[in-house]
């Protein structure tokens, strides 16, 4: 197994601070549009080996990064479950909504056979990329996928999803259990193909009613990690319980992930004090700080993050994905601050 900086941090070894960015392969790099022009349909784009490889490696042409995240989308699982997933320009994703208690939950798809291009791209990239660069495979967490599948689109409050949880708890849990298996299968496939790190995005975990946080976020994540370990997949797992607030503490002790990605709302002093010391931490620069052409606070904030985290196993990242309007020069500046800091300590 590769011994790059991120793997070192995640495997309990002393290391300088590695750096990568969530959504680094997306639309903030103008060249992405050239690649994207080759395939207007985003699902087909995510199924095209050549385009997956080009998009995954695009940020490495611009930046000195410690990881590449494989180009795909969390909604490829609902797509494989025939939920009629579509991406429309200026609208985002839309799916055929599930009716709580009524829509039959499909349990017998062969997910892996539908995602062969993803598998092949990972194998190819792991061969080609330098060993010093981690290749990250990922999946959406069960709750976040259920949010999109029930709501049928993005939402400010996912009210239909929360209503479904209260009205049809058994059905909801059957959906979560089904997703756990598909997610574990997808993560296993990516690790076997060559991904050295796996990440589980729970981008809507802040929509889980507090009483159900265990049922919908912690236990499902722990089950996914258990399934992976029982199948001898030993690569580190990063969990991202976005904006889950104080629930992150329990998540850190019980979800079995090796690292927690902290969102930009988390106070790092609080995190150091209360989050399980056995897990590594990743985060949490506000991606909005990378939008203005100039900010007096950017450098200072990056250094504060580094200083605060100096005694923890830590990976520098943003606290949510890079936005399309973030500036390449800002990203470069952040990387250089982190690299210089590493040389001094
Ligand atoms: O750069 C990377 O991180 C690699 C690939 C990646 C994408 N999506 C590509 C993408 C990753 C890791 C994701 C994860 C993802 N997808 C999440 C979890 C992370 C998060 O940001 O919270 C979520 C919630 C999604 C669902 C999703 N996919 C939405 C809501 C959208 C629409 C966004 C928009 O503003 O249009 C997408 C589309 C998408 N996924 C794009 C990219 C590069 C834009 C598609 C395009 O080219 O038009």
Would you write up a description of this structure?
The chain has helices at residues 5-10, 31-36, 42-45, 49-62, 76-80, 111-114, 116-128, 142-151, 159-167, 169-193, 213-230, 247-254, 268-274, 298-308, 328-344, and strands spanning 67-69, 86-88, 92-94, 134-140, 197-202, 237-241, 259-261, 280-285, 314-318. The chain is globular, with a radius of gyration of 19 Å. By secondary structure, the chain is an alpha/beta fold. The chain has one domain: TIM Barrel (Alpha-Beta Barrel), CATH 3.20.20. Helix 11 (213-230) packs parallel to helix 12 (247-254) and helix 14 (298-308) packs parallel to helix 15. Strand 6 (237-241), helix 12 (247-254) and strand 7 (259-261) form a beta-alpha-beta unit. The chain has 15 helices and 9 strands. The mean pLDDT is 96. Strands 1-4-5-6-7-8-9 form a 7-stranded parallel beta sheet. A two-stranded antiparallel sheet has the order 2-3. Residues 22-27, 36, 42, 69, 71-75, 87, 92-93, 138, 154, 201, 203, 321 line the site of coproporphyrinogen III.
List its salient traits.
single chain; 345 residues; alpha/beta; TIM Barrel; seven-stranded parallel β-sheet; two-stranded antiparallel ribbon; binds coproporphyrinogen III
Summarize the structure.
46% of the residues lie in helices and 12% in strands. By secondary structure, the protein is α/β, with parallel strands linked by helices. Strands 1-4-5-6-7-8-9 form a 7-stranded parallel sheet.
What is the CATH architecture annotation?
Alpha-Beta Barrel
Helix/strand structural class: alpha/beta
Taking all Cα atoms into account, the compactness measure Rg is 19 Å
Our measurement of the CA-to-CA distance between the termini, rounded to an integer number of angstroms, reads 27 Å
Small molecules held by this entry: coproporphyrinogen III
């Amino acid at each position: 197994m590769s011994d790059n900086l991120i793997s070192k941090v995640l495997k309990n070894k002393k290391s300088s601070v590695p750096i990568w960015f969530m959504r680094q392969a997306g639309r903030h790099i103008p060249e992405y549009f050239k690649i994207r022009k080759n395939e207007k349909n985003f699902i087909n784009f995510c199924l095209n080996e050549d385009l997956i490889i080009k998009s995954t490696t695009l940020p490495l042409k611009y930046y000195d990064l410690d990881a590449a995240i494989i180009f795909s989308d969390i909604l490829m699982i609902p797509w494989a479950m025939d939920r009629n997933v579509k991406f429309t320009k200026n609208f985002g994703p839309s799916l055929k909504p599930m009716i709580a208690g009524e829509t039959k939950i499909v349990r017998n798809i062969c997910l892996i056979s539908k995602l062969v291009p993803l598998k092949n791209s990972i194998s190819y990239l792991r061969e080609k990329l330098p060993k010093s660069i981690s290749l990250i495979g990922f999946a959406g967490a069960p709750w976040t996928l259920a949010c999109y599948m029930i709501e049928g689109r993005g939402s400010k409050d996912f009210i239909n999803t929360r209503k479904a949880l209260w009205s049809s708890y058994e059905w909801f849990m059957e959906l979560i259990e089904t997703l756990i298996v598909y997610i574990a299968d997808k993560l296993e496939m990516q690790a076997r193909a060559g991904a050295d790190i796996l990440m589980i995005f729970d981008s809507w975990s802040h929509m889980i009613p507090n009483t159900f946080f265990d049922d919908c976020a912690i236990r499902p994540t722990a089950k996914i990690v258990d399934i992976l370990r029982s199948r001898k997949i030993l690569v580190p797992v990063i969990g991202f319980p976005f904006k889950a607030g104080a629930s992150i503490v329990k998540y850190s002790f019980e979800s079995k992930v090796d690292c927690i990605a902290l969102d930009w709302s988390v106070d790092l002093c609080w995190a150091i004090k209360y989050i399980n010391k056995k897990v590594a931490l990743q985060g949490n620069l506000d991606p909005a700080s990378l939008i203005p052409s100039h900010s007096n606070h950017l450098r200072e904030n990056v250094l504060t993050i580094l200083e605060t985290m100096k005694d923890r196993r830590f990976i520098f990242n943003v606290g949510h994905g890079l936005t399309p309007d973030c500036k390449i020069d800002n990203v470069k500046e952040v990387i250089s601050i982190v690299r210089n800091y590493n040389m001094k300590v």
